[in-house]
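Sharing a chain and its predicted structure for anyone who wants a worked example. Both blocks are below, sequence first, C-alpha cells second.
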Amino acid sequence: DDPVYGNWASTPVLDVDGGNLYPEVIAPVNGATALAFYTGNIANTCGVYAETENYKVVYLGIGIEQIGDEAARNQFMAITHNWFYDGVEVPDSTEITGIKEITFTTSLGQNFPNPATDITTITVSDLDQDAALQVFDIDGKLVAEQAVAAGDKNINLNVNDFAAGIYQYRLINSTGVISATKKLLVD
C-alpha cells in the first residue's frame, strides 16, 4: 500500500494514437517510488514519483489520456493534485464551482493603427475614475505606463521608443485591473 497513491486502481492502457503505442518502462532511481505498472508487474514500471525538500515530481511513461478507466484517471489526477498541494481537496464532481466570470465595467478598444509605428490611438468607454494604461512586452515586463483621466474617450500612445514586436495593454486603477487586455503590434 503506497503512502501517496494507496491502492490506485488497475486499468488498461489505451492506444489513442492508432497503433503508435510506446509504453515506456521506467526504473525508479534516487529515491523515486514506482506508482504504476504495466500488466501489474513491478518489473514493468510505467510511472514514478519523488519528493525532496526542494521539489516534487510525478512522471508517467504514458499519456494521461491513455489511462483506460475514467474513474482511475480521475483518481490519479486527484491524488496527484492533493499530493502537490498538500491536501487541497478536489471535488468529487467534474463540475468546476466557485469560479466567477470576470466582468469589466470599462471597455478598452483595439488600438489603431495596428501595427503602430509612432502614435496609436486606443478608445475607451465608461471610464468613471482615473486609471493608468499599462503596456507590457512579450515577456510580461511593464514597458510603459500612462495616466488616463476619468471620462477620457481616447488614449494616444507614443510607441516611437518601442522595439518592433508584440505588446499587450490594459487599464488599471487603485482597485485593480478594470479592462480586458488587448494586443498591440509595433513595426
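Comments welcome. Residues 46 and 61 are 5 Å apart (CA to CA).
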